[in-house]
Amino acid sequence: MILTILQDSNEIIGEVISEEKTLSIYNLIMDGGLGGQIIIAILLVLLALALYIYFERFFAIKAASQTDSNFMNQIRDHVSHGKLDSAKVLCAQANSPAARLVEKGISRIGKPLADIHTAIENAGRLEIYKLEKNVSVLATIAGAAPMLGFLGTVVGMIVAIHEIANAGGQIDIKMLSDGLYTAMTTTVAGLIVGIIAYVQYNHLVVRTNKVVYEMEAKSVEFLDLLNEPI
């Protein structure tokens, strides 16, 4: 008798396990309703945009940070010997933000140091603007993505409450599943996209600051060169 009961229990447990639904990202998205699917689609577009901006800026900033350690020594030799054209060619070959600032200063040699300093500062602002191109979009995505996820949470809860109101007092979990799926999946997706964009933004800011510091160092070194006695 006991053996029969145990066998029946094992059969029931086996049937329950076999009927257990597997959890997948695709099913979560598709079971979340139209509202959740729209928000997930928007978040995927934002994620793709964030990845594109990050890698495009990453390689651009990486290229801008690559300078020859002997660059300023060569500039010093050319300027001290009056070979300004050769110095400009060297700057053009370097093709970096710092080199373009030095080239701007070389083109102003012969004018007052204040004018040279102002020209370098103006050129520096333009170079910084180029380095920071579209980086602010990452900050926007980092802030907007979680908000879109929370919007999905609100939409999902509204759907769930609407189903409860139409249930006539008889609450069925299956009726609430669409709203709950929307609430949970959009929140998770929004946080994931926001975190990725936030990390990417801060990484680009750090790398940009390094290039800016290098530009400032080269500019100061060039101005010091002009102040040296001939």
TrEMBL record:
It comes from Lutibacter maritimus. It is a multi-pass membrane protein. GO terms for cellular component: plasma membrane. It holds the Pfam family MotA_ExbB. Belongs to the exbB/tolQ family. The keyword Thylakoid does not apply. The chain crosses the membrane at residues 34-55, 135-161, 181-201. Residues 94-216 form the MotA/TolQ/ExbB proton channel domain. This is Outer membrane transport energization protein ExbB. Keywords: Cell membrane, Membrane, Protein transport, Transmembrane, Transmembrane helix, Transport. It is found in: Cell membrane; Membrane. GO terms for biological process: protein import.
